[in-house]
Amino acid sequence: MKILIANLGSTSLKWRLFDFANSAEKLLHKGGFERVTDYPKAIEDCLAELKNAGAIASESDLAAVGFKTIIAKNITGCVRLDDRVLAAMEAYSGLAPAHNPPYITGIRLFAKRMPGVPRVALFETAFYQFAPEPMMRYAVPDSWHEIGVRRWGFHGASHKFIAERSADLLGRKDVARRAQNLYVDGGKSPVEGAPLRAISCHLGGSSSITGIVNGVAIGNSLGMSPQSGLPQNNRVGDLDAEALPYVVKTLGLSIEEAQRQFAKEGGLKGLAGGLSNDIRDIQEAATKGNAKAKLAIDVFVSEARRWIGGYFFQMNGADAIVFTAGIGENRAELRAAICANLDQLGIVLDAEKNNSTRATEAVISAANSRVKVLVIPTNEELVVAREAKRLLASRN
Domains in the chain, please, with CATH? Predict the structure, then answer.
């Protein structure tokens, strides 16, 4: 069984091809294109690369094409992509304007090019289906809640991978098994021994933090849309509800222009005075004395600590804090800043291990740290492929 995972952006197409033959999980091929202007050609070029590499002989070798979709109205989990699901994604395009439209377009193009190959979506909201209701509600009237004004949570595939892999690394096969089977039994797989409490920090161009107990999420820093939570690369993150009408009235902006600025000129880019939305550029500028760049870093670190602290308190401590994604896996300075002066909470980094760890699995906490601090490279595509395989198997 070969499953192609397509990661679609407004100007990019990236892919990974997995083979699940004989119960294995083998990555056969990966690649991608940036600055895509012709998606049908990009899809053709993707298939040509797979064929030239000998990964597939033809499209009929593919059991499915999987997509890491974001959000849809009244639909979550792992589902076959049909007109009903695409319509539900379109209904929530306003909540994920940078994500849903290119996915919808790309999915339709894949369907046109390979009509006989099933298309499967794993929504990023799926990991939070089983979170406690009080952690997912906003204090709004019922009529608002009924139309979807609630915390949905995102980066679900990444945090689910961390839930599984961190449990494996900590010797808790029972918890890893529960996380792996979460979408099958809703987190009812038996757990032996004390609860395993992990805080997963997906820090990158888009960032979120999730509290996880025994492989099941209890919440996520992202809320109703990907425009919330920590400061993103150029998205504002958490903001008081009165900010939008105040900005519209005071600056004379249209709602649409204010939304554009929130999504394109906020976040780290906004804090850094428009310098860049790339954390590498901002860190470099901060080290050279740029005060706004330093502020951007400090706000990001402060917000990460706030969310980690909230889940630490909610779970009565933590057994592990895990850093993943582009910033979490690669920026030792930010990991150190986030974990600084937390020894009274049992969190102590080993400076040498932290500084030498980049994009590889490692324990970076000191020997006397009660809380393990780990770096685990995420693998969202593998999670999507696993769930797509499970869905296909259940239909046979």
Answer: 2-122 (3.30.420.40), 171-375 (3.30.420.40)
